[in-house]
Write a structure and sequence with these properties.
The protein is α+β, with helices and mostly antiparallel strands and 525 residues long. The protein folds into 3 domains: 31-182, Orthogonal Bundle (Lysozyme); 206-359, Lysozyme-like, CATH 3.40.80.10; 388-524, Sandwich (Jelly Rolls), CATH 2.60.120.260. It contains 12 helices and 24 strands. The strands form 7 sheets. Strands 5-9-8-11-7-12 form a 6-stranded mixed β-sheet, with helices on both faces. Strands 14-17-22-19-20 form a 5-stranded antiparallel β-sheet, with no helix packed on it. Strand 3 and strand 4 (178-182) form a beta hairpin. It starts with 5 loop residues before the first helix and ends with a strand.
């Protein structure tokens, strides 16, 4: 059902390569994706007399079989840990139950699964169920979920866990190794009662109203979309946000596969999703006149089932979310750029990091633009249009087909809005060979149109040189572009013949002195 995307896994490698996050020591940090979980589920199931298929289904629902660690997204909620989504409020007792350390539960998938199996076994003993029947485990799964909302609990048990048992699931690592495979199981089909009404602002959504909202200040327009991760599974997320005790909400929640979206608060109302006042220094020094105002006054919040620490986000979830964001931005006239579509952690960095370093920002923004009919293309090195996009941040590139290389002194910036991805580089013009090189890999020789994206401004070069080279290193074309204009959109450079292998577009700074050239993104289509 799910294959780890090459884009997301490559983003992990790109982050370390570009210095955006520290490179963890391999002996202290376990990889997010650990393979061979079928044997792990089988061993833990045999040890604690729990069906291995049930362990696999719960792990899939909780984490998509990744070793995640979630800081609670909402005050009062409990964090989740590892493949099985162990609750972080009882880790000491959970570890002691299997004779392990808390770090074992955090680092080692086998220990994490064993701990969950022990918890399920204890619940089964307390309830006196028939352990030989998969269907008999339903009340045990309900207790394991710790979801108070009755509708959400039913969705978790019968719709998600037992739905996964019925259909099966599998996932592979980027290396091609099998993470886990769950074959379809014979379980009773139980219909899950769901809300009948469509979302009042987004018809494809299911209306599950939350009491946790207020009125927006009069005359304050909506101009921002905030991307969140729930730090947990879908049902637990919207179930908690409908609880008045939570004192938190979001306008929407997108499930893991993208097959369902819940709307909890009307867009016209003020959901409680960012516990911070706006500070333009966290958003490229954009719109500083809003400093000190609650972000919730002018933002719409979208929660996504999953974790900021996960290695990848399912393609279906990204697509569904992009369609939703396109609809929001179109209805409210919101520009589709990284000053207006932002991450929760970006605005509230003191205690939030979501949606995390592996949220595919370039792919996501480009997809939103494409769905809304903007001048966009395929995302992050191979989106739906088949284009390759080389961003200025290698964390946003698919390492197998796209990368940027800087020579000499370039300065990272995000102060001018309308950039592609998560920022751009600039350098002073001068008679020096110290370019920004946008590398892209082609499987076969052919003629390709090339576009470039930059942020425009009066200090930009009037004739920024772009030079195209094939994989043999031969120049195949060049053009100059006035970067004082035509900003924040794809501008055609030319159509040239490239060869199989690593070709490149070089942005030179060798032009009239006294200006800067902007290296933001290149698209090959």
């Amino acid at each position: 059902m799910t294959r780890m995307s090459s884009f997301a896994i490559a983003a992990l490698l790109g982050l370390a390569a570009t210095g955006c996050v520290p490179d963890p020591a391999p002996d202290t940090v376990s990889p997010v994706v650990q393979t061979g979980l079928d044997a792990t589920f089988a061993a833990a199931g045999a040890e604690f007399d729990v069906p291995p298929a049930l362990l696999a289904a719960i792990g899939y629902v909780e984490s998509r079989w990744q070793m995640v660690e979630g800081t609670p997204e909402f005050d009062g909620a409990v964090g989740k840990l590892g493949v099985m989504g162990l609750r972080t409020d009882a880790l000491d007792a959970t570890a002691a139950r299997i004779g392990a350390d808390v770090e074992d539960l955090r680092q080692d998938a086998a220990s994490n699964v064993r701990a969950a199996a022990a918890q399920l076994a204890d619940l089964a003993s307390a309830q006196g169920i028939d352990r030989g029947s998969l269907d008999a485990w339903r009340p045990v799964v309900a207790a394991y979920a710790h979801i108070d909302d009755a509708d959400a609990q039913a969705r978790y048990v019968d719709g998600d866990v037992y739905g996964t048992l019925a259909t099966g699931a599998f996932a592979y690592a980027e290396s091609g190794e099998l993470i886990a495979r769950l074959e379809p199981q014979k379980v009773a089909a139980i219909a899950v009662t769901r809300a009948k009404a469509a979302g009042p602002d987004y018809a494809p959504a299911v209306w599950r109203s939350s009491p946790n909202y207020g009125s927006r200040p009069s005359g304050v327009p909506i101009w921002m979309v905030v991307i969140h991760t729930c730090e947990g599974n879908y049902a637990g997320c919207w179930g908690w946000l409908r609880n008045s005790a939570a004192q938190a909400s979001a306008h929407y929640v997108v499930n893991e596969s993208g097959s369902e979206i819940s709307q909890l608060v009307r867009e016209a109302n003020r959901a409680w999703h960012v516990a911070a006042s706006y500070a333009c220094s966290h958003n490229g020094n954009y719109n500083c006149g809003k400093n000190g105002q609650s972000v919730n006054n002018f933002a719409i919040g979208i929660e996504h089932a999953g974790f900021a620490s996960q290695a990848s986000f399912p393609a279906g979830q990204i697509e569904a979310s992009a369609k939703l964001t396109c609809d929001i931005t179109r209805d409210h006239g919101i520009p589709r750029d990284r000053n207006h579509i932002v991450g929760h952690g970006q605005l509230q960095p003191s205690n939030r990091v979501d949606p995390g370093p592996n949220w595919p920002w370039s792919q996501y923004i480009d997809r939103v633009r494409t769905l809304c009919g903007d001048n966009g293309g395929g995302g992050g090195g191979g989106g739906s249009t088949g284009a390759i996009i080389v961003d200025s941040n290698n964390a946003n590139n698919t390492a197998s087909v796209a990368r940027i290389e800087l020579t000499g002194t370039w300065t990272s910036a995000s102060s001018t809005p309308g950039y592609y991805g998560s920022g751009y580089w600039f350098a002073d013009t001068s008679a020096t060979a110290a370019p920004a090189t946008f590398w892209f890999y082609l499987d076969a020789a052919g003629s390709h149109a090339v576009d470039a994206w930059w942020t425009a401004g009066p200090n930009r070069a009037a004739a920024a040189p772009f030079i195209a080279f094939n994989a043999a290193g031969s120049e195949v074309g060049r053009v100059t572009k006035d970067q004082r204009a035509s900003g924040s959109k794809w501008t055609p450079l030319g159509t040239w013949s490239f060869t199989k292998g690593w070709n490149k577009i070089v942005l030179s700074r060798w032009t009239t002195a006294g200006a800067v050239v902007i290296a933001d993104a290149v698209r090959v289509r």
